[in-house]
Amino acid sequence: MTYCLGIDTGGTYTDAVIMDAKAKTVLESKKSLTTYPSPIGGISSVLDALSPDLLKLVSSVSVSTTLSTNTVLENTGDAAALILVGDEVLLKNTDLSLESINHPIQNYIIVRGGHDENGDEATPLDTKAVRDFVFSMKEKVSAFAVSSYFSVRNPAHELLIKELITDLTRDIETGHSHPVVCGHELAQSLGAYERGVTAYLNAMLLPVTRRFAESVLSEMKRRNLSADIKILKCNGAVSGILEAMEKPVESIFSGPTASLLGASFLSGRDTCLMIDVGGTSTDISMMEGGFADISESGATVGGWKTKVQAVRMETSALGGDSQIWLHSPSISDLNSEKIRIGPRRVIPLCRAAAQFPEMLSLLQDRRYFNKLHMTEYIQPVRFFIRSGAEVSLTSEEQFVYDRIQNTPTSLHDIFWGMKYLPSDALSRLVSKKAVNMIGFTPTDVLHVLGEYGEFCTEASMIGAGILASFLDMSPVEFCRHLKQIITQKMALEIVYFLAEKGMSDLFCSKSLFNHSTSGVLSLELYSSTADSKKFIRSFLSFPKPYVKFKINVPIVMIGGPVKAFVSELHELLDAEILTPDFFEVGNAVGSLVGKVSKRIEVTVRTVHIDSKYDLRTQGILVHYPGGRRAFDLRDAAVEFAKSTGKALIEEYMRRENIPLDKVELKMKEENVFISKGTVPVQTTFIFEGFAKNLL
């Protein structure tokens, strides 16, 4: 009997399940609050809650985590430096690109060098510029990233720079050098800048991921668990923990990917749409024929466009912990824009009151509140609490921070005796994560409606009553309206996600446009994203039951409170909506479902024999990860490409301790022709090796 342990560290909760791998059944599941800034505390707590007798029988562990995603979004990784190598085009355009992202790269240089499309050296590498930059940066950063023009056709310049950095940063006493991440090691597709961004993020994530991985290993050792540990990647595959420490950027969106895999496994549906309502966000993704729908263009996270292949998903800032706040509440109509939801995450009133019972008296001691002063940070039911993080503060920030305690502090106590409302200082303290906000959330809404009751319902009721009074509504009426808004937002994201794939229809159950019969309306009338969303939103707001969207695939809902939204979603969507057993911990189950897999591309290209560069080509070039080779005959080149791709897959599986007889190898061939009936000028062989992980 093989027992396996799945762990998912989400934005709010850390979930764990123990499963019988042979029977494919969940034996036990637990949840614990995620801890910050290090998630290992939450992992330790959830493991403490599991049965020790079951835990000691575990032989395999798989982890999914939001660590990489949050580190990139919050720009809290360790300092890294980027070296870009390219021709005049790259030199001319990249500087603007670097400044256009949310957190511009501060430590970078662009040097001359790079190769052409055949892999021949286009410009000699400026090694002096590289040396000078490394010397200026080695005391400021903990890692380097390198990306060279056409390095996927010839990585020679990247490898030379890696060797230079290793030599120039080697510590005499320890012999250790700064880590160096090369773009060709992470991506095989063209795009030197995007490969550079991917390598830079990977370099930035190396130290924080290593600390996390070592903490997990230490925690398992402390519990005497000699288990094989895997990390779920954002493409649905898993890797060993050592590879995860080397390529942490591949675990971006690991959490939502786990939810998708868990949704498919728990529902028994190879094709389904998954909606995961978490604490911080709502994520939507899709499984087709047993495989996750992958975005071939590369994942975008925090404004960074990368070459990381990830599950295609739609993410909205709508979670159980999304703050609900009032904007211009003097207007008492039901226009949803007067009631704002998100995007910032706060601690729900009910959860804060469960931890700090004195919150109830703070809520009941309501002071006069000027509705004209309401902002995202100044609200009738808003409290602040220190986070424990050590950050640098300005004098104004420090003055406000000193008024906030390690227990919930009301706005009245913060502002007492002050001649102005320091809203800007509070926003900066929150952005710097020096303090956390406490407020009314969708979790509180469900507590008021009696559909979720894990924490302190009384706090939610008081908070709802205060906010509803500004809109001349009762607390229950206010919360029902909020739930309707949240459900419509979910439905909008579901329909739009499927509309992009041509998998949803608008089914009119009564006459709408002077038609006498029901029918289907096409969404293809609108080409732009904005128009499509406006079109879909307009129909979701039609009075019931005039219109419904027909969804052609099952919808599987994952996350603690999702059952509360099923009936409302049915009113908007004609769909099969499932909440399978253990949907509350579907992401932890999903962390166990991933396969050990590897994807390799090898390209055979016909080139001109009269190459003007030093390396004379022989008519046929084969480009493979880490190198290239020239051939006179195409048949010989094709044979080499096939054998090389297979060998690289097998080498990877051996490193992951997977027996080769357990590996399924697939090869796909893509050809490019100049004219019909001719020999291909380019053939790309795509090799994929799969091995079942745990389930």
TrEMBL record:
GO molecular function terms listed in the Swiss-Prot or TrEMBL record: 5-oxoprolinase (ATP-hydrolyzing) activity
User: Per the record, what is one GO cellular component?
Assistant: cytosol
Q: Where is the Hydantoinase/oxoprolinase N-terminal domain?
A: 5-167
Among Pfam families, the record links this protein to:
Hydant_A_N, Hydantoinase_A
Q: Which GO terms describe its biological process?
A: glutathione metabolic process
- Hydantoinase A/oxoprolinase domain segment(s): 195-328
Q: Which residues form a coiled coil?
A: none
Reading the lineage from the top rank, the first entry is: Archaea
The name of this protein is Hydantoinase/oxoprolinase family protein
Q: Which organism is it from?
A: Methanolapillus ohkumae
